[in-house]
Design brief:
By secondary structure, this protein is of the alpha+beta class. Helix content is 20%, strand content 25%. The longest helix has 9 residues.
């Protein structure tokens, strides 16, 4: 199988690679990741030593910067409680945590969740957090620019490997909300 974007030596249906995914991501892939047909959820094997965006794009294809998205976990505080949410923005941008995220979640304060909290609550590795397989009760805020892309590369739950799926598929994931201006 050839990946619809990037220059990857090993691309396969994600359903054939559940043993390479973290348990929550593997469970979501088995369930179909929303309403996504299994043949449209692709796993590409990648070198974990070059998982950071700049090195990754330099190695696997310059065009990936405009077709890759980063998923980050935020902690929003209001009153005495904390709400966790995930935000998905293009890799070329950054999440507007103190503006759009804070307002959208109705929080007094919002910040990136500490690494241990993000990995512990998602069951995923730092640098590989993906919107596929997040806790079902979390809001998943997605920049509207992502939904319009034909294909988007995201983490796989591990630093090794990535998932590729159609941009429109993210809106069908549990807790998904399309948000204008999430990425700046």
């Amino acid at each position: 199988m050839r990946a619809p974007l990037g220059d990857f030596d090993d691309a396969r249906p994600a359903l054939d690679c559940v043993d390479l995914l973290t348990p929550p991501v593997a469970d979501a892939v088995r369930a179909g990741a929303g309403d996504l047909p299994p043949d449209q959820l692709i796993f590409v094997d990648t070198d974990p030593e070059i998982a950071d965006t700049a090195a990754f794009v330099a190695h696997y294809g310059a065009g990936l910067l405009d077709a890759s998205a980063n998923c980050v976990v935020v902690a929003a505080k209001r009153g005495g409680g904390t709400t966790f949410a995930a935000c998905l923005v293009l890799s070329s941008g950054r999440v507007d945590v103190n503006g759009v995220v804070r307002k959208h979640l109705g929080a007094r304060k919002a910040s990136f969740a500490p690494m241990d909290t993000a990995t512990g609550r998602t069951g995923m590795e730092y640098g590989g957090i993906t919107p596929v397989g997040l806790p079902g009760d979390w809001p998943l805020l997605i920049d509207t620019a992502i939904a319009g892309l034909p294909w988007v590369l995201v983490g796989s739950g591990r630093r090794r490997g990535k998932l590729i799926l159609p941009g429109k598929a993210f809106a069908a994931l549990p807790g998904a909300r399309l948000v204008d201006g999430l990425g700046v």
